[in-house]
Amino acid sequence: MPRFIFRHASLPVALLLLALTQTANAQDTYFPNDATINYTVTGNAIVGYPDASGQPPTSPTIDLVSGGIIYGGALETYNHSTVNFSGGNTSAYIVSFGNSTINVDGGNYGVDSYNNSIVNIFDGTGSIYTHNSSTANIGGGNVVGVLRASDNSTVTINGGIIGTTAVGNGFFDLIASDNSTVNLNGGNISNILFAEKNSTINMSGSIPNKLVAYNGCTVNVSGGIIAGHIDAHGGNRIAISGGSIGFLSLVSSTLTMSGGSINDELVTNGYCTINVSGGSIGTGLFADGGGTVTISGGNFGNDNFGGLYAGNGTLNLIGGNVGYEIDVAGNITVNVSGGSIGSVLYVRSSGTLNLLGTGLRATLIDPQASFGYYSQYTLFGAFSDGTSIKGKILYLENNSNAHFTLKNVPKPRNVNPIIGRANREQFARQRTRRV
Q1: Beta bridge partners of 29
Q2: What Rg do the C-alpha atoms of the chain give, in angstroms?
Q3: Taking Cα atoms as reference points, which of 134, 95, 71 lies closest to residue 6?
């Protein structure tokens, strides 16, 4: 079984070549038993790996403390071994294999973990790479390089700082790829969290910049603050039940929103599926590119600005609160059967607006409103949920394919339960006599 030689493609070329040269030419020092390293080890320190005599693997615990230095090589762990790193230094990474555990409680570190290994960071400064179903738990310290999870790995962040302190420099401080999972419960991501290739982000912490998701990722936001925005492209699934987001941009993705807030706007392009049952969207929803939007709750805009802006696809409004306006434009059908709407509705271009309710009617007020661009109507009646629309204004664009319909549905009859039961019993007796 060939032993691992330190490598990492993300390092600068000069440093990578130096590390490879050091480890390839370095001597190996084996640690088959428990030990404390408070001195200089030249070359590679091998923990829990059989030495040249062919002895079976062991699983020791190694303490690397202040004064301990791995010079000119890497610290490699195998076979359920444990390394407690509380100081000292390594000229290359701490590399863990085979269910090993790395505990870091201080010093300057670099960890590269494989094969179900576990990394626990309590303090210190460094960078972390996880592969092959490894786990990293971050509770403190500062990951100044990149924190990367790949190949079904899991990273849980409860504290500490991820990335440089220079917020807004555009760096990817945390990268999740290839079916990995990131649980952001606390701490602080200085810049960008980037997810790709079917990874999952469970978010309740803080990101002062933005979260970017590509290619089939799942993002669950239950709390915390994303001061910038979420940018999701290509088959992603976004679920928001709490927290605060600057704004949200979706391309060919799915959104389920039951709580939380989007402070600015929600913008969709491509074929998206949107279901909103709660929460608030500051300046409203801008839906374009096709797909289906269903709104049964939540707040969109306010009394003076914002609302629903629909360009393509289908939008169903059955509840919620639209603050100022509904603008139906493009090749879209909007069906409204409930909820509170603002004072103004626009139907333009090739848009279709269907209003469903009881006692609905529209009175033409001005066929040449707004310098002849629109026909102005006043609406009366109520939606199917009983919400009155009396006095609402509708503008229909002239010389266009836009149109609206009023679909009055019968009011549900209030049936006395006693009479209803008696009628059912009589009907049952008649059926019995006919038999």
Answers
A1: 45
A2: 31
A3: 95
- State how far the alpha carbon of 368 is from the alpha carbons of 353, 390, 395, in Å: 20, 22, 10
What letter does residue 170 receive in the DSSP assignment?
Answer: -
The pair of structure tokens assigned to 78 is 């195998």
Q: How far apart are CA 387 and CA 337, in angstroms?
A: 9
User: Is residue 121 within 8 Å of residue 101, measured between CB atoms?
Assistant: no
Question: Which residues, other chains included, contact 140 with Cβ-Cβ below 8 Å and sequence gap of 6+?
Answer: 121, 122, 123, 159, 160
Identify the bridge partners of residue 219 per DSSP, sorted by sequence position: 201, 238
Instruction: Note the pLDDT of residue 413.
Output: 63
Handedness of CA 180, 181, 186, 188 (dihedral sign): positive
User: Using one digit for the tens of pLDDT, what is the confidence trace for 121-161?
Assistant: 999 999 999 999 999 999 999 998 789 999 999 999 999 99
* pLDDT less than 50: residues of the chain: 1-25, 167-169, 427, 430-435
Residue partners of 17: CB distance under 8 A and separation at least 6:
none
Amino acid at 206: S
According to DSSP, the residues that pair with 287 across neighbouring strands are 268, 310
**C-alpha to C-alpha distance for 310 and 98, rounded to whole angstroms:** 54
* CA nearest to 250, candidates 222, 278, 292: 292
The answer to whether 213 and 230 are in contact (CB under 8 A) is yes
Residue count of the chain: 435
Read off the tokens for 126.
């460094």
Q: What is the bridge-based pairing of β-strands 154-157 and 172-176?
A: unpaired
Chain center to CA of 355 = 34
Please compute, for residue 44, the number of CA atoms within 13 A of its CA located in the half-sphere on the CB side: 25
Phi and psi torsions of 14, nearest 5°: -60, -45
28: which strand partners? Answer: 44
- Give this prediction's pTM: 0.86
Q: Which two tokens stand for residue 345?
A: 């509705």
